[in-house]
Design a protein that fits this description.
Rossmann fold; 3 domains; Immunoglobulin-like; seven-stranded antiparallel beta sheet; about 25% helix
Length: about 500
């Protein structure tokens, strides 16, 4: 009888110990999986789950930081800033109640960026559609073996009514290798080219996370905190939104003319909630962004929505110095494209941590998805190298209007971010996309009067002298407001002048 009681006691103890061990299992958040890249030079939050009140110790690269899980079982520990390292090391979280530890292997330290937006961000390096992939992507993929660059694809094409803290799909960090870049989840071509240029120049590991969805607006990618920060978008901060399943059910029971949003992904906040929120507050240098076609009707007001986007991302990633490198829209046939392009430029001029890549020369009027994403990535990268990584001698900015005046029948326009200017059209013409109007408001084609012969070189440094036949007293001058909307004026490092409109007064 005593033996049986002893055996039962041992069995019960084993069950209890097993249950406790299961309860005490410490978890790292999904972002901290094998192959992850951590941000150098700044505080690195690491978080996860454990039993309520459990002590958790996070260890990495000689650091050991202790924290305690809250009543909800969530814990967070912040690692001190670290130097870049190409050595794959182990990130570990150990709890006080169990010998089992959560481990992420082959973790690097370098530069981390997020990549987001709509379809021109989504356009993959390699893909099945000839009309929706990079024009050089398959060639580039087969030549690329850069294991110190890692990407994490995070688009699940769903929405969430509330900010998620768990990951909708398991984060997998993949190396830049031919098999990964040409695989089923080939990464954003723009993101690939950007990461390649950054890694090549600074020589440290680079991690890039991608969450994007074609045909989506800026509002769904903006968190509540960002929408609240701008007067125009405040009403969207608390607007009722539904998760994917609930939205589909509501659509079936609501007449078309009564639906506030046509698609679940049109609702404000919902894409941030679903795909970006789980990553916060992961330490990142910044994010690259290509979006605006869906918001093209906003015109100049788009600048305010960009402020909301940036403010929200900066706050939620706990990074007041968060960098934003974004793409101004390319022309695709929209007759008011210049207005939203100028809205983007307005935001870039107002936000110190934002820089804009101008691509008005890369459009395709027959396709909203131009397939040259190499140039796009390079123009983003040159901005980042200058303003984020200390390459001060680089000329990274497109020319902009510095000042203007009228002399007789001519506009004299001085450009900034240029020491010389040239005109280039593939058809060798000297049409400049400039228009001038007088007091009657009738726009007429403008000509650059200070060209040197017929080669497209402009005389007088970074100055344009513009006049239009039949306009004796010019009142306004604009650029790229009429078909075909293609940029053709460049500075000395081949960066194009973007759309503008100026008045004589």
């Amino acid at each position: 009888m005593g033996y049986e009681k002893t055996k039962m006691a041992v069995a019960l103890a084993t069950v209890v110990m097993t249950a406790l061990a299961a309860e005490a299992k410490v978890e790292l958040a999904g972002a901290f999986s094998d192959g992850a890249v951590l941000q150098r030079g700044m505080r690195v939050p690491v978080w996860g789950k454990a039993d309520p009140g459990e002590r958790v110790t996070v260890s990495f690269a000689g650091q050991s930081v202790e924290t305690v899980a809250g009543d909800d079982g969530k814990w967070r520990a912040d690692l001190s800033p670290m130097e870049a390292s190409a050595e794959g090391r182990v990130l570990e979280a150990a709890g006080s109640k169990s010998a089992e530890r959560a481990v992420a292997k082959d973790v690097l330290v370098g530069e981390v960026w997020f990549c987001s937006g709509q379809s021109n961000t989504e356009l993959p390096l390699v893909g099945g559609s000839p009309r929706f992939r990079d024009g050089k992507g398959a060639m580039r993929a087969q030549m690329t073996y850069k294991p110190l660059i890692r990407f994490c694809y995070q688009s699940d094409y769903r929405v969430s009514a509330k900010p998620r803290k768990s990951f909708p799909i398991k984060p997998v960090w993949s190396k830049f290798t031919p098999e990964n870049l040409a695989g089923n989840h080939s990464f954003s071509a723009m993101g690939v080219y950007f990461a390649l240029e950054i890694h090549s120049a600074i020589g440290v590991p680079v991690g890039i996370v991608g969450a994007y969805w074609g045909g989506t607006g800026v509002e769904p990618w903006t968190p509540k905190s960002g929408l609240e920060s701008v007067e125009l978008t405040k009403p969207l901060a608390d607007a009722e939104v539904l998760s994917s399943g609930d939205f589909e059910a509501a659509v079936k029971s609501t007449p078309k003319d009564k639906r506030k949003y046509k698609r679940a992904q049109d609702q404000p906040r919902t894409l941030w909630n679903e795909m970006v929120s789980p990553w916060t507050p992961y330490a990142i240098r910044g994010f690259i962004w290509y979006q605006g076609c869906h918001n093209a009707g906003d015109g100049l007001k788009y600048s305010e929505k960009m402020h909301a986007l940036y403010n929200g991302w900066s706050k939620e990633f706990e990074n007041p110095d968060l960098r934003l490198r974004f793409v101004q829209l390319a022309p695709w046939g929209y007759d008011k494209i210049a207005l939203v392009q100028m809205g983007q430029a307005k935001f870039a001029a107002e936000e110190p941590n934002a820089k804009m890549a101008v691509i008005c020369d890369l459009g395709n009027l027959a396709d909203i998805h131009p397939n040259d994403k190499e140039t796009v990535g390079q123009r983003l990268a040159v901005l980042s190298l200058k303003y984020d990584y200390g390459f001060d001698s680089l000329k990274a900015d497109s020319p902009v209007v510095k000042s203007s005046r009228v002399e007789g029948d001519k506009f004299i326009v001085e450009l900034d971010n240029a020491t010389s200017v040239y005109l280039y059209n593939p058809d060798r013409s000297l049409k400049a996309g400039l228009e001038v109007c007088g007091a009657d408001g009738v726009w007429k084609p403008g000509e650059i009067k200070n060209l040197k012969g017929d080669k497209g070189l402009v005389d007088g440094g970074a100055k344009l002298v513009v006049a239009a036949e039949g306009v004796a007293e010019p009142k306004k001058l604009r650029y790229l407001h009429s078909k075909p909307w293609f940029g053709c004026i460049y500075n000395e490092v081949n960066l194009p002048l973007g759309p503008f409109e100026i008045s004589a007064e």
